[in-house]
Amino acid sequence: MARQITCECGYVARGETEDKVVDLIHEHLRSDHPQLLAQLTRDDIAGWVEIVE
Q1: By percentage, how much of the chain surpasses pLDDT 70?
Q2: Could you report the per-residue pLDDT of 6-25, keeping only the tens digit for each?
Q3: What's the farthest any 2 CA atoms get from each other in the chain?
Q4: Domain limits at 32?
Q5: Is the pLDDT of residue 53 over 90?
Q6: Among candidates 34, 39, 27, which has minimal Cα distance to 5?
Q7: Number of domains comprising the chain
Q8: 3-state SS of the chain?
Q9: Which long-range contacts (C-beta less than 8 Å, at least 24 apart) are formed by 20-27?
Q10: Neighbouring C-beta atoms of residue 45, cutoff 10 Å
């Protein structure tokens, strides 16, 4: 099953592993929401991962 995180802005990061999705959303936050990323840890982001079919 795939994993995904949907950002409030509508961006969807999707991958086969939690690490891949966290990496994708981390890069998105770095480029589009740097002020938010400064307040988050990798564990915070990992808590947003959803399992999808």
Answers
A1: 100
A2: 999 999 999 999 999 999 99
A3: 32
A4: 2-52
A5: no
A6: 27
A7: 1
A8: CEEEEECCCCCEEEECCHHHHHHHHHHHHHHHCHHHHCCCCHHHHHCCCEEEC
A9: 21/49, 22/46, 22/49
A10: 19
